[in-house]
Write a structure and sequence with these properties.
The complex is a heterodimer. Chain A is mainly alpha-helical. Chain A contains 15 helices and no strands. In chain A, helix 5 crosses helix 12 and helix 14 runs antiparallel to helix 15. Chain A is globular and about 70 Å long. By secondary structure, chain B is α/β, with parallel strands linked by helices. Chain B is 47% helix and 12% strand. A five-stranded mixed sheet of chain B has the order 2-1-3-12-4, sandwiched between helices. Chain B has a three-stranded antiparallel sheet with strand order 10-5-11. Chain B is globular. The relative contact order of chain B is 0.17. Classes of the chains: A mainly alpha, B alpha/beta. At the A-B interface, helix 4, helix 7, helix 13 and helix 14 of A face helix 1, helix 4, helix 11 and helix 12 of B. Chain B: This is Sugar ABC transporter substrate-binding protein.
């Protein structure tokens, strides 16, 4: 029974009822076919929600970029989401880099040091640990699993104060080591590497390498490491962002401003506005914040494709 | 987000203060060594020998002072650590003292926080160095703050904050409103201003412990009585009633802008005329110049409104001292620097850079009184400030745990600004919470 429009126009009321019934059925059928796999269903509600979230995420960034073009006076005089009369981005950038004898540059270098050694080291340790846990069997593995999962659940902030007391006993507070050493541990990175290594490295490949006479170290570096590349980038991104943005740990560990990372330094600048006789430099705080997130945005854009494939690893059974 | 962080910081500050108390009790047996007098000859010899002094202080004019001092005593190196202030400064200081490592030789401590460090023996008594002979140099308010009714001197006053009323002349002129001289007139002016332009508020106040205690001070209230470890807290005296009656009107009629001080909104409001007056310390002009550059020429200073017409009583708001932490090193050098900065030649150069002195000589100098403030349209504002400094009652004291008390202000009195709680009830719950904490800390609280 084909419900065409010609049959719907025919006189009999029962036929017309049947026809309407069919005409209703056809689009329903077509709809179901439309949102299968390739062509997702369009939904006004979802579009609006996505739009709202887009505004929610983009507006602060836009505000930051626009505000970075204003002087201290312009910030107070103009609306937040449009430019002031004076375009001061270049002079703001210049001032940010030269204020207080160029301490911003020093903070930038400190941050790079902490990220390089801390995040880099954390990634390296996560690769080693994750690979070992994924591909070797040893007694107590379940215990290690429990500890790692437990450690993922403990926020770093909660450990900061005990770590401070421990480090101060060892005489390490107020040195760069106080920031670098705790950053070396990334339970989440280890877990991610573990899962990724389980999926990405076929056991047969390792066995083949061993049969061909490669030592464990050589098997790891020549065979396993290249296969782990997307996972490594993912973990590196996570640890980099975590170390780059870390505020609380350096806050309690460091007293000497010469060792501050950017987060603490910008906060110190911001606090000047709350100080008797302090220099109010909101324009430099804002420009400094913008400069601080530029490297992170660049890292995300450049490494995005590795990052996405890394996140999805293990989600589909082949 | 901001709120969570600050709560976290508070928690941390409390934690470190507890730790500080514990270590201070343990390490106080060498108490007698500190009370040996140090002659000026000893200090001169130390200066000749040289060494380094680490100073934790955010006061911006100290940069020049440190440079001058090193020029005068080339063998001494002043290592000025200046990037932290407020809560973070005290957290770092308490942490260092409790860890007994990295304690600075000189630390800036605000008057309200001095009691805490003095009581836990975190600071050296400066009287043996000759600081007790400097009393006559300072105005009464700050000197009372660094001595706290004892013969010990916990620091030398660096600056002071006699209060004044700053007002936006442009706004007052526009609506033809007279500058209030009493707090009753102030309430009247608040009504008129807000009626003339609903966007204009007489002041911002979202609950600020420092401001409220200063207002109580001016109104003649003395809520805190401190005698060693015996303290009492009472917000029910006549002075407190004067303050709550007046301020409750402003809150009830929604005449206060709900803006927190020191935020970017606050600076914006001071600049665009939303906030028409500000009762604050004499150090404020420097912050006006850098924080509110677009309103240059709009603002003026006036004496604080009086509680009864003709009364000249004033109060202090803010201000800090330089202290010698007990665990610091190079004591003679450190003291020499503190004296240079706060009572010697350093004061002159700091005043030149906009600091407000605590010393009589500078406050009474013609050059100081005749300084014309470009920002205030050429007004000789120091005359008003100096007058205010002379009229500060010197019998005010803060709690030995004022830092903690201030940290819970918003959870208690702050409710009066946002809900149906009355200011009096808010103060009562602040009192109860302070008493409870004091008892827990081992104070005898009445």
């Amino acid at each position: 029974m084909s419900g065409t429009s010609s049959s719907a126009t025919s006189a009999s009321p029962s036929a017309s009822a049947a026809a309407t019934g069919t005409t209703r059925a056809v689009p329903r059928l077509r709809k179901r076919r439309e949102h299968s796999a390739g062509r997702p269903r369009r939904s006004v509600l979802l579009t609006v929600l996505t739009g709202l979230i887009l505004v929610y995420t983009v507006v602060p960034l836009l505000w930051l970029v626009i505000s970075a073009t204003k002087t201290q006076e312009g910030l107070a005089d103009s609306s937040g989401l449009w430019f002031a009369d004076d375009f001061a981005l270049w002079s703001n950038i210049h001032d940010t880099f030269t204020y207080h004898d160029g301490i911003f540059v020093r903070w930038l270098l400190n941050t790079l040091l902490y990220v390089g050694l801390g995040a880099g080291g954390a990634t390296f340790l996560a690769i080693l640990g994750g690979y070992a846990l994924a591909k070797f069997d040893f007694p107590g593995k379940r215990g290690v699993f429990a500890v790692v999962i437990g450690a993922v659940a403990v926020p770093g902030t909660a450990l900061a104060v005990p770590t401070f007391l421990m480090f101060s006993k060892m005489g390490l507070t107020d040195t760069p080591w106080a920031v670098i050493i705790p950053s070396l541990v990334s339970p989440f990175g280890l877990y991610l590497m573990w899962v990724f290594a389980t999926e990405a490295i076929p056991v047969e490949l390792l066995e083949a390498a061993r049969i061909d006479g490669a030592g464990e170290a050589r098997t790891f570096f020549k065979v396993a490491l290249p296969l782990l590349a997307p996972g490594i980038v993912t973990v590196l991104l996570f640890t980099t962002v975590a170390t780059w943005n870390n505020y609380f740990l350096p806050l309690i560990m460091l007293k000497d401003p010469d060792w501050y990372p950017l987060t603490l330094g910008l906060d110190a600048w911001n606090n000047q506005a709350q100080t008797i006789g302090g220099d109010v430099i909101f324009n430099l705080v804002i420009t400094g914040s913008l400069l601080t997130i530029v490297p992170l945005i660049a890292a995300f854009l450049l490494l995005q494709k590795y990052w996405q494939s890394g996140l999805a690893a293990g989600s589909v059974k082949e | 987000m901001r709120r969570t962080t600050s709560r976290l910081m508070r928690g941390l500050a409390v934690l470190s203060v507890l730790a500080l108390g514990a270590t201070a009790c343990g390490g106080s047996d060498d108490d007698s060594s500190g009370s040996k007098p140090v002659s000026s000859g000893d200090i001169q010899a130390a200066l000749k020998k040289g060494g380094s002094v680490t100073v934790w202080a955010w006061e911006p004019t100290l940069k020049t002072v440190a440079a001058d001092f090193q020029k005068k005593y080339p063998k001494v190196k002043i290592n000025l650590v200046a990037e932290r202030s407020g809560d973070k400064h005290y957290t770092a200081l308490s942490n260092a003292i409790s860890a007994e490592k990295g304690v600075p030789d000189v630390a800036q401590v605000e008057y309200f926080a001095l009691g805490q460090y003095a009581l836990t023996k975190g600071l050296s008594d400066l009287a043996p160095y000759g600081a007790d002979k400097l009393k006559s140099k300072y105005t009464a308010g700050p000197w009372n703050a660094v001595t706290q009714g004892s013969d010990k001197v916990w620091g030398l006053p660096m600056d002071s904050g006699p209060m004044a009323l700053y007002y936006n002349k442009k706004v007052f002129d526009k609506y033809k409103i007279a500058v209030p001289t009493t707090w009753d007139e102030y309430v009247e002016a608040a009504r008129k201003l807000h009626k003339a332009d609903p966007k204009v508020y007489i002041a911002n106040d979202a609950g600020d412990a420092g401001f409220t205690t200063s207002m109580l001070w001016q109104a003649g209230s003395r809520p805190y009585k401190v005698d060693g470890t015996k303290v009492s807290v009472d917000f029910s005296d006549a002075g407190a009633k004067k303050y709550t009656d007046t301020w409750q009107k402003l809150i009830d009629e929604k005449l206060l802008a709900p803006i927190n001080g020191w935020t970017d909104d606050w600076y914006k409001g001071l600049g665009d005329g939303t906030i028409a007056t500000l009762a604050s310390g004499a150090w404020m002009p420097a912050n006006f110049v850098t924080g509110v550059p677009n309103a240059a020429g709009d603002w003026r200073a006036a004496p604080m409104p009086a509680w009864t017409k003709g009364d000249k009583a004033s109060a202090e708001n803010g201000g800090s001292s330089l202290t010698l932490p007990e665990l610091g090193k190079n004591k003679e050098l450190a003291y020499a620097f503190v004296e240079y900065a706060n009572s010697g030649a350093g004061v002159q150069s700091r005043v030149k850079e906009g600091a407000f002195p605590a010393t009589n000589a500078e406050l009474q100098a013609d050059s100081f009184l005749n300084t014309e403030f470009e920002y205030f349209g050429g007004q000789k504002a120091n005359e008003i400030f100096a007058d205010s400094a002379a009229n500060v009652a010197d019998d005010w004291s803060y709690l030995p745990f004022q830092q903690y008390a201030n940290s819970i202000f918003n959870d208690t009195v702050g409710k009066a600004y946002v809900g149906n709680t009355k200011l009096t009830d808010g103060l009562k719950s602040w009192q109860d919470a302070s008493v409870k904490y004091g008892k827990e800390q081992g104070f005898t609280v009445e």
